[in-house]
Amino acid sequence: MSETTQVDGRSFAPPEALAAQANVGPDVYDEAARDRLAFWESAARRLTWDREWDEVLDWSNPPFAKWFVGGRLNVAYNCVDRHVEAGHGEQVAYHWEGEPGDTRTITYAQLKDEVCKAANALTELGVNAGDRVAIYLPMIPEAIIAMLACARIGAVHMVVFGGFSADALASRLDDAGAVLVITADGGYRRGAPSALKPAVDDAVGRSPGVRNVLVVKRTEQDVEWTEGRDLWWDDVVGKQSAEHTCEFFDAEHPLYIMYTSGTTAKPKGILHTSGGYLTQVAFTHWATFDLKPDTDVFWTAADVGWVTGHSYIVYGPLANRATSVMYEGTPETPHRGRWFELIQKYGVTILYTAPTVIRTFMKWGEDIPAGFDLSSLRLLGSVGEPINPEAWSWYHQHVGGGRCPIVDTWWQTETGGHMINPLPGVTSLVPGSAQVPFPGISAKVVDDEGNELADDSTGLLVITEPWPSMLRTIWGDDDRYVDTYWSRFGHMYFAGDGAKKDADGNIWLLGRVDDVMNVSGHRISTTEVESSLVGHPAVAEAAVVGATDPTTGQGIVAFVILRESGTDSGDELVQTLRTHVARDIGPIAKPRQIMVVQELPKTRSGKIMRRLLRDIAENRELGDVTTLTDSSVMNMIKEKLPAAP
Ligand code: WTA
């Protein structure tokens, strides 16, 4: 947990013009407080239902919630068809830009046709409602089309970020019991085609349940082909009819599984369902970003493979009939001004991104954004980790021209949608704090026993009432769902984040309190990296910590003990181990630093004292070492270390 909160006394009132026309005004908080369920019910009415619910919330079997009980809807119909039926077929849904500069403009009418064709194709391949479909694609429109096609026929999608390894993909295919994988030959990354199909071939080889692999042609790379199993997207989807009558599903019908790191080595399959999820992502997208469907150009610069992409590239924006930008590549390709060029080119009005990206831009310098016309921007958003006040100010001034409010949004894969954040037309912004619970959300800061804390004391963040887009369970593991989130405090949801609340009611998030690291906004478990390292024949023991990193928030630092003391512990081995982890889990899990040590600091009960390792990794004076079995261990480690970068 890091103390990143430096209140410097500044606050920024909402711009008058924005407040005067904001989608939600100050009354929204009172309205939600008066009757929380009626409030969410009116949010649900923004969607189109085939049948209304009989009951807003069934919490008779906590922590298993049912929202909008008895209601029926189709998520894809809400995201696409209804806008076309209302005469908005010609409106652009996505301005897509590939990394090499190729572009596609997709209107709502075109999106409807593509989704219907893909839905027909899935049915032809024998995919039924409730079946799991893995999507392992680059940031191309087919990723969205595939997600919506699944939703349309009631199949459960499971998007796996393209940066994950074959092993990570294989374990997810197996855990979810996927019957189909949708992938591409490759995607563009840092100016070059990067292959995806080989990882799929490797993973599917180990997953007997996968019947077919549907392959989108993106880079024209050569691919291995398994006859009878592999099919080209163009061949199967291209020939389908664009007519498809959608079925309506129960509000609690599963929509998707998204795997995220927990405190053990095995990722958790977070399950989201239909009605409550779409209600909250649509409403938060509309309120937090003050989205005006006729005039805004909205850009969530994240990957669809993460929950941010699911909720705020796909479901929220489409449910609100937004026009969005979608970009395939990295911010520095072919030059460091690429994002700003895109903002200028498409007239982006709302930009949503992560602090790690902002800090990277800070490093590159303010001259880069200054070289582009960013005057279309009117609102900025942040997600993924606390935004430090320096990054906040830089974002505010050099991207937002000093005129755009910044909404810092705290939420999680598990929460599905925004939970703690300011509202741009209402809240006076305090840089560095995510501020207040969203209307209809009840959050508290409590001590270890679950007692609410006095102002300014540091404790744990809990959510005290169920919310519409909450996870419903961990796929296939109800016990783990209960244990992980609900057993600590009984009927309160334990988020895993440290927090404090100040006298003005602002909540300051202080980072994870469990063994989960946050690297560039990605959650990676220390245990997962440790088990990968000990999986290498040279390693006997490993301890991994997240050390504060000026750009990525946290960097992964590993301490390893080798099997044989004679083993060469030089640079070459360290590089081999780093590559080993990257191959095992994915490049995002590659340790920033690996230190070979003789011993690890342990308590008398044998627990590794990560806190001390973190002190070392962050170049700090050592904290209390009295519970160590052997306090000389720390000196031995310190003497051996190269200076941290
Ligand atoms: C952290 C991403 C502070 C937090 C949507 C949480 C944040 C984890 C913020 C969830 C924020 C996310 N301020 N911390 N605005 N947003 N976090 O599941 O530790 O990838 O528990 O969801 O990121 O990460 P996840």
TrEMBL record:
Binding locations of CoA: 189-192, 308, 520
Superkingdom of origin: Bacteria
Alphabetized GO MF terms: acetate-CoA ligase activity
Cross-referenced Pfam families: ACAS_N, AMP-binding, AMP-binding_C
Domain AMP-dependent synthetase/ligase: 86-467
Post-translational modification note: Acetylated. Deacetylation by the SIR2-homolog deacetylase activates the enzyme.
Residues covered by the Acetyl-coenzyme A synthetase N-terminal domain: 27-79
Residues annotated for ATP binding in this entry: 384-386, 408-413, 497, 512, 523
Modification sites for N6-acetyllysine: 607
InterPro entries to which the protein is assigned, alphabetical: Ac_CoA_lig (IPR011904), ACAS_N (IPR032387), AMP-bd_C (IPR025110), AMP-bd_C_sf (IPR045851), AMP-dep_synth/lig_dom (IPR000873), ANL_N_sf (IPR042099)
Binding annotation for Mg(2+): 534, 536, 539
Keyword hit for Transport: no
Cofactor: Mg(2+)
UniProt xrefs under NCBIfam families: Ac_CoA_lig_AcsA, PRK00174.1
Name this protein carries in UniProt: Acetyl-coenzyme A synthetase
